[in-house]
Specification:
This protein is α/β, with parallel strands linked by helices. The chain is built from eight helices and nine strands. A seven-stranded mixed sheet has the order 3-2-1-4-8-9-7, with helices on both faces. 40% of the residues are buried.
């Protein structure tokens, strides 16, 4: 990636709040982003909802019958809370307003080194918002940080025969995941976002955010640990 490219990065809630808030991860991320922006790179980071979203969704569903839209809104607010946490720790670097509507990214000053984004409205995950933001700013690549090294052919926690994927086309990848998206869906990448990324020819690199050296290697065009999904 060139030094002046805008990098769209989705940071999973599983990294920000695996259980309690992970300050070690946040410190490492802060160091990396500060170094990279000082070297001329520009980032748009979108926060996921993770366990915070699921806890609220599960609790609500235990007490009353839930509509998908209500579950979605709980998830959205979790992404905004996590996004606001990022906005706070990057106070001296980030644009002061968090982006929720992907269209708003077009109104951001081009010299802003860092923009924080979060969920927008029901019916989609932050994966889709990351792809939409990338499309609007003309970014050809999206980095998807989660808590696993690779995308697998199936859930490795449930299926011991699941195989890791290092490189795959969107067409083949989409055969591995559900066709529809629903609140709290546990898929390595949102099916709606996958379809959009394929249509817009956007590459997604799925990396383990706890191993930020892999992220650095990917940014610098070096071999990295992770999964590359592309046309």
């Amino acid at each position: 990636m060139s030094q002046h490219e805008t990098i769209v990065m989705s940071v999973g809630g599983s990294l920000i709040v695996p259980d309690a808030i992970d300050t070690h991860f946040l410190s490492s991320l802060k160091d990396l982003i500060e170094t990279e922006t000082a070297n001329g790179r520009r980032f748009i980071i979108i926060a996921g909802g993770g366990k915070t979203a699921r806890r609220y969704q599960d609790a609500a569903a235990e007490v009353a019958a839930m509509e998908n839209e209500d579950l979605d809104w709980l998830g959205l607010h979790a992404t905004r809370l996590n996004g606001h946490l990022l906005l706070t720790i990057f106070r001296n670097l980030a644009h002061r307003v968090m982006v929720t509507n992907p269209d708003d990214v077009l109104d951001m000053p081009k010299d802003e080194k860092l923009i924080i984004a979060a969920g927008y409205r029901p019916g989609a995950s932050t994966d889709l918002r990351a792809i939409q933001i990338a499309e609007r700013v003309g970014a050809q690549k999206v980095i998807n940080l989660s808590n696993i090294d690779y995308v697998y052919t199936d859930d490795p926690r449930k299926n011991p025969d699941a195989e890791k994927i290092e490189d795959i086309t969107w067409e083949d990848f989409r055969k591995l995941i559900p066709e529809e998206w629903g609140p709290g869906l546990n898929s390595p990448f949102d099916p709606v976002a996958a379809k959009e990324a394929q249509a817009k020819d956007i590459e997604v690199a799925s990396l383990n955010g706890t191993k930020l050296l892999s992220l650095k290697n990917y940014l610098d065009g070096k071999p990295f640990t992770g999964t590359r999904i592309h046309n």
